[in-house]
Amino acid sequence: MMGLTAELVVDGRAPQAPALAPNGRLLCYVLAPLSRNGDHLDTELWLVDTDATVASRRATADTATESQPRWSVDSGTVFFLSDRADRGTPQLHGLTLADGTLTMLSSWRGGVLDHLPLSDPNLVALLAEDEPTEQDTCRIRDRDDAIVVGEREPRTRLRLLDLRTGQVTTPSVFGDRHVVELRQRPDGGPVAVLTWASADNDYGPRSGQLHLFDPTTGTEEDLGPVEVDARSLAWWPGADGWHLGYIALTPPVLQAGTAVFDLAVDSRVLRNHTAGLTMCPTELCQTDAAPLVVFADGLNTTLARLDLTDLTTLSHQPGRLDNVTTTPAGDEIAVLTGTRYQPPNVHIGPPTGPLRRVTDTRPELDGVPLGTQQPLAYRAADGLDLDGLLVLPVGKTAAEGPFPLVTIVHGGPYDRYADRCQLFWFPSAQWLAAAGYAVLLPNPRGGQGHGHQFAASVAGRVGQQEWTDILTGIDLLIAEGIADPDRLGIAGWSHGGFMSAWAVGQTDRFRAALVGAGIVDWGMLAATGENGQFEAALGGSTGWSGIGPHPHDAVSPISFASNIRTPVLILHGAEDTNVPLGQAVYLHRALRHFDVKHEFVIYPRESHSIRERHHQLDVLRRTRSWFDRWLRT
């Protein structure tokens, strides 16, 4: 029996963006490699019959990046984006199923970013930035390209493509606002449009507005501001007229649980439709009637229907459900989901379940032994109910412990560990379990799946109760004889990297740590990261909050660098704009100053996630080698 290798982890392919045809007979999805070779990610468009009488078949044959399949109302054409004509510049294409004709439908300089086929069969809405002018071209050629912040900033605008003529028009609507998302009313009425004041991630999500756009008349109506970080628009009819819903952060704090907000369009009354729930909505899926809502519910997922007065639970699904797509009637859905030991595949069925798998995109993992994964339920020091996962070394039972234990903290912090297959390019449980480690995957407060208060409790207080929540889980496994207290490691990426850096500044219990793309100074991150105001809410202050010391100093790992004795592996992408490289440099210099054993690895061309194949292989091998070095002796 073949064991798990780094190549098996990164050389697979995963389904993305399933799109169920309105007639429910066909499903289109994107098949994408997990890692990238070269400058472009070559993806493929696939079709599968929902009755499973015909095997999945590739819909296109080009070497290209293909994405965002969307169906025409009559289910006869699937529209998608592809850069087959000019790599790196996606254009709208249409595949007519009756005769297999593939047509490039746009030639917008700069490319198309998103699209929405409208109820009028001759119109497709496009989202694209302004085409470069001759003056822009001259400036680039002459290197007269000084960037003046606030001037000539890119904006994504709404365009209309007439399929009869191929002409693209740009309605004079929304001023200079940046268009983010579109959703047409299911009866073919106006298009709901979500805009930001700018494309700046620090500012845009806090400046969202909703509009109605009539594609027939070209006119718009302003519906006013939305809650912070609004997304996932969905319409539904009610006795009092049309309602428009979206998912957004629960006010007033920026680090909070999400909620479903319900806007009665005629009366402009807005209500929080999920207040007080201990679940967190992740997606709204529009139907011709009441929309479907996906909830992160602890380690698992709940699927519900949103009625005007209540939520009706339809099914409980193990692990995660993502990218839900449905027929107009809402009687059939397609989702991405997997199991504890199988990566996500496309599944279809009624929203009440059961769901059946219709793709098998990782057959190379069949028969590869994985560690036993089991849910954990325990209580924090203050009595709060917590959950998480334990993955045992491959071929071992809990009774054979104690084992070296690596705790991997999730990112976000508004993320979660769901009871799904834990095998990824970044520090993941099954990769370490294959090397003989037990792995704890805790869900401390601040994360998703337990309601608003659970998530909001870390705002301005990161590294406090979430840290003791993690320690409680470790101590539980030590007490049960599963974890060896003398061979503990800790790891994480992004916010998990922060928690790893925080941990080694608070205790010497860990013999090794991995800090991947981690935060070490919250004031610095608020000043330089792309999500500055969100980071300021987590850290509690900014550098311009007056003369220090500032609240963020007390929750920044760099403030405790003189306490660190644990060997640290630092991994970071050179082009990371979410958590800029300077955070890793800061930690590296502090550890060098205090003569702490560490390695510092920078991945050229990489952002917050590592995408290139050789870099992913290096992360996997270096991670395992690092913990072997310190926890095996």
Automatic annotation (TrEMBL):
Residues 429-631 form the Peptidase S9 prolyl oligopeptidase catalytic domain. InterPro entries: 6-blade_b-propeller_TolB-like, AB_hydrolase_fold, Peptidase_S9_cat. It holds the Pfam family Peptidase_S9. Keywords: Aminopeptidase, Hydrolase, Protease. One of its GO terms (biological process) is proteolysis. GO terms for molecular function: aminopeptidase activity; serine-type endopeptidase activity. Transmembrane segments: none annotated. The keyword Hydrolase applies. PANTHER family: DIPEPTIDYL PEPTIDASE FAMILY MEMBER 6, SERINE PEPTIDASE S9 FAMILY MEMBER. This is Dipeptidyl aminopeptidase. It comes from Micromonospora arida.
